[in-house]
Amino acid sequence: MNNHQKMKAVGAYRYLAISDPESLVDLFIEKPLPAGRDLLVEVKAISVNPADLGMRQNNNYEDGSPKILGWDVAGIVEQVGPECQLFKPGDEIYYAGSVARPGGNSEFHLVDERIAGNKPKSLDFAQAAALPLTSITAWEGLFDRLGINHSAEENKNKSILIIGAAGGVGSIATQLAKLAGLTVIGTASRPESIQWSKNQGTDFTINHNSHFAAQLKDIGYETVDYIFCLNDTVQHLANMAEVITPQGKICSIVPADKASWTGSLDMDLLFSKSVTFVWELMFTRSMYQTKDMIKQHELLNELAELIDNGKLKTTLTERLDPINAKNLRAVHEKMETGRSIGKIVLENF
């Protein structure tokens, strides 16, 4: 095979502790070709998410081929599939991709154009790569799942509690909720995470390691209209049930993973208040090829406009160069502590 048909990538052949140099390795693999509505993208920057950690740990690795992770990409369209209508070669785009396909930790990457958006013009590739997965999650969670209106007028006296406000999703969810006119109460437990979440726009912060109701009372709130749970759902359920307004709504992005159960997910706690409980997984649309898949293209474009108009800002906190196994292992290790703030991005192969 000719050399030009090969590309650099970073992948895993089996699950190993991240301290093991074999846990993520540099690879040289075949460069893919776009078909259908696929775009072939030259990857300029990538970001790491908890999804990468989960996929590295929970993948079955049975077929012997390497697992390529990475669900946050900013890059340039190199080639388009025969059925593409939204983009052309040379376009700068950003997207989160699909867990049903290889991830973006490779020099070139295929993505369905319906889940990619035009990169914000005011951001460089690294700043843009910090955004897609967390922004789609926050946007879908707030507006599709919780059904929050975009109009600030509608939300004038409404409040939302964001559990895990300093993380990737929390940082952008705070900004979007403020834009929609909500009073935002974020949870954070360390001085630096409290400061970061205030910089994103939280009106108040409380500590997720202590009783919610008492802390909310201290800032003048008996209950909150909405809760967006970005952290251990089981652990926080009793607290959430206590402080949600009757007929309020809760959205969580964290499955009640049996391995980490400190109890069970007792949904009866929400019964007397007729609470709506919804899940959000931003991969649902791409995984099931839903009829409204293109909504992710639309929301990424809308997000880019808000950023270019100065209404939202990137949540990038750290950059590493280049994209290789050594740097990716370092980022995974940092994220496994659960204490990272905002988003870490790697750029350039």
TrEMBL record:
Subcellular location(s) per record: Cytoplasm
Superkingdom in the source lineage: Bacteria
Record-level GO cellular component terms: cytoplasm
This protein's UniProt keywords: Cytoplasm, Metal-binding, NADP, Oxidoreductase, RNA-binding, Zinc
Annotated TM spans: none
Pfam families in the record: ADH_N, ADH_zinc_N_2
GO molecular function: oxidoreductase activity; RNA binding; zinc ion binding
Ranges for domain Enoyl reductase (ER): 19-346
Principal localisation: cytoplasm
Classification via InterPro entries: ADH-like_N, ADH_Zn_typ-1, ER, GroES-like_sf, NAD(P)-bd_dom_sf, Quin_OxRdtase/zeta-crystal_CS, Zinc-ADH_QOR/CCCR
Similarity comment: Belongs to the zinc-containing alcohol dehydrogenase family. Quinone oxidoreductase subfamily.
Subunit annotation: Homotetramer.
Stated name of the protein: Zinc-type alcohol dehydrogenase-like protein
Species, as recorded: Paenibacillus graminis
